[in-house]
Specification:
- There is one protein chain.
- By secondary structure, this protein is an alpha/beta fold.
Length: 208
């Protein structure tokens, strides 16, 4: 926990951007019958029955000090080691291609390992990608420390709380949301510090 909080306390450095990464998924549902459109004074009405169309998984890539975010969906639309490696490749080569080092905060999911790069890429490229990152992990039961979770909560409320029937529609919705939000970047003002942790979470410290 203190390691992550120390990272959050660092000054912004364009050569070493801070990025928070987390996975999220959406169950795809289609309508059995078409909803009745919205009218003045009356919301959209839809049948409570629905058709399951599978699910899609994506990666939230949030840069809290820049105030921007992107959603990456791998070709298989899953969250395997291979998909994770592709998301990190996208982060390194498309979002911050010129960064000296990318500081990544993520949770301890079993795919969040250096091994995953070697699952997706030849050894030479895998090693080159690994060298681009400095990894920091949230503690067990402490994934709330990952700022990407805030972004996931926001996007769920804004555009994913309704029925979405296809992966393509999911991609369109998330793209529209992130494009709109990124037009007016608002850096995250993270307030919870190590000193706060030592007071509010003192039960976690053996000698406090």
């Amino acid at each position: 926990m203190e390691q992550v909080l120390t990272v959050y306390a660092r000054e912004r450095d364009p050569n070493r951007p801070l990025v928070c990464v987390d996975e999220f998924s959406k169950q795809l549902l289609d309508h059995v019958s078409e909803p009745i459109p919205m009218k003045p004074g009356q919301p959209v009405r839809e049948d409570h029955e629905y058709i399951r169309e599978g699910s899609v998984s994506a990666f939230m890539i949030a840069s809290p000090l820049e105030g921007v975010r992107e959603v990456f969906v791998a070709p298989d639309r899953r969250r395997t080691a291979h998909d994770y490696a592709l998301a990190m490749e996208y982060l390194a080569e498309n979002i911050y291609p010129d960064a000296e080092k990318i500081i990544v905060v993520q949770d301890n999911l079993n795919t969040h390992k250096i091994d995953s790069f070697y699952v997706a890429f030849p050894a030479k490229k895998a090693r080159a990608l690994v060298e681009r990152f400095e990894f920091h992990y949230t503690p067990k039961h402490g994934s709330w420390l990952n700022i990407a979770e805030i972004e996931i909560s926001s996007i769920n409320r804004a555009c994913l709380s309704r029925r979405i029937s296809t992966p393509e529609k999911f991609i369109d919705e998330t793209k529209a949301y992130t494009t709109s939000k990124n037009k007016s970047p608002k850096p995250v003002n993270w307030q919870f510090t190590r000193d706060d942790a030592r007071v509010k979470l003192r039960n976690l410290y053996p000698f406090i």
